[in-house]
Write a structure and sequence with these properties.
Elements lengths: L6 E10 L8 E11 L4 E5 L6 H9 L6 E6 L2 E2 L7 E4 L11 H12 L5 H14 L16 H14 L4 E5 L7 H17 L3 E5 L3 H7 L2 E5 L7 E6 L8 H4 L5 H18 L16 E3 L19 H11 L4
Parallel strand pairs: 3-8, 3-9, 6-7, 7-8, 10-11
Antiparallel strand pairs: 1-2, 1-4, 4-5, 9-10
Bound molecules: adenosine-5'-triphosphate and magnesium ion.
Length: 317
């Protein structure tokens, strides 16, 4: 088994020149974090702190001002079909139908497949997000915002990338559709070796889906302040996880960060020397310190934890 993290984000900084040309805007500075193979990681932070910018750098669609992103021991230098992206603004090709938008990605990903295979595979994923029965023939301008978002989700799932990068993928969906597609995401993720990095503003969604939630402080000079481990066993059911002992301690910890601590952690003083290689603080709200020993941790039946335990103990659990 390959024990190096799938992704290593090292001292990542993104600056923009100010419109007036005097002072630069330092969106985030020296962001460091790892994502393990098979892990589901959410990131939460206030609007404008730099979440989409980080995701675009991970996708290889934007360059950092300094620092590196390493995926599978290779530096990310441009886009790749190993990374599927659902953008905050959907980014569909406006002249292609919903089906052809998905086919476009699938054909590039699986060039050896027949036309029939590509079409069937693409349609399967559109059906999965509730867009069959004629909707697949419409162009993006003929679809609602939520339908466009679903096409974008279908396209990202259908190319079966190693890493799924999701930028608020469910923002435009009603609660019912959102729940159905969240369940599909978890099913696709747990049936494959995929790793997920997802931006969300919804703390309940993050607790439902993630193995770990990264908390990003406010910009400018934003940092990845904490890594919150979600010690709630899978499968997780919406109606049941709220009764788990760790649920409210985790939720309160996240809300407290967003309302209070996110403001206090950033370094506004440019004369402060940069802090390099600082990984976010790992936090396990709701777990008493005595239980932190691996043997006494609650049973978490997700594949990432299983992999990690196997790597640590050398035995299959
Ligand atoms: N091309 C650009 N030129 C200058 N500033 C930019 C550019 N793109 C983004 N920014 C700035 O970078 C900061 C981070 O933007 P980003 O889109 O990453 O935020 P975000 O955390 O995703 O916010 P939201 O939750 O609202 O989507 C913002 O202050 C934004 O104004
Ligand atoms: Mg954003």
């Amino acid at each position: 088994m390959n024990n190096t993290p799938l992704l290593q984000i090292q001292n990542l900084t993104r600056k923009y020149p100010s419109p007036e040309g005097d002072q630069e805007l330092i969106v985030f500075e020296n962001a460091n974090f790892n994502i393990e193979r098979g892990e589901f990681v959410c990131i939460i932070g206030h609007s404008g702190c730099g979440k989409s910018t980080i995701l675009n750098v991970l996708a290889g669609l934007d360059d950092a001002s300094s620092g590196v992103v390493i995926m599978d021991n290779t530096e990310v230098k441009g886009p790749s079909l190993d990374r599927g992206v659902v953008f905050q603004n959907y980014s569909l090709l406006p002249w292609l139908s919903a089906l052809n938008n998905v086919i476009f990605g699938v054909r590039a990903r699986f060039p050896d497949w027949s036309r029939k295979q590509v079409k069937e595979h693409s349609y399967k994923y559109l059906k999965m997000v509730g867009l069959g029965d004629g909707a697949e023939q419409r162009n993006p301008s003929q679809l609602s915002g939520g339908m466009r978002q679903r096409v974008s989700i279908a396209r990202a799932f259908a190319i079966q990338p190693k890493l799924l990068l999701l930028d608020e993928p469910f923002g435009a969906l009603d609660a019912l559709t959102r729940g159905t597609i969240q369940d599909e995401l978890i099913r696709v993720w747990s049936d494959t070796d995929q790793t997920v990095f997802m931006i969300t503003h919804d703390v309940d969604e993050a607790i439902l889906l993630a193995d770990r939630i990264l908390l990003m402080s406010n910009g400018p000079y934003a940092t990845i302040a904490e890594s919150v481990v979600i010690d709630i066993p899978r499968p997780r059911k919406r109606a049941e996880i709220i009764h788990h002992d760790a649920y409210y301690p985790i939720r309160n910890h996240l809300v407290d960060f967003l309302t209070t601590r996110s403001k206090n952690t950033h370094q506004m003083d440019p004369s402060t020397p940069p802090v390099l290689n600082q990984q976010p603080l790992t936090v396990r709200p709701g777990i008493v310190p005595d239980a932190l020993h691996l043997n006494t941790l609650p049973t978490v039946s997700n594949k990432f934890t299983k992999n990690r335990l196997t790597a640590l103990t050398g035995t299959e659990s």
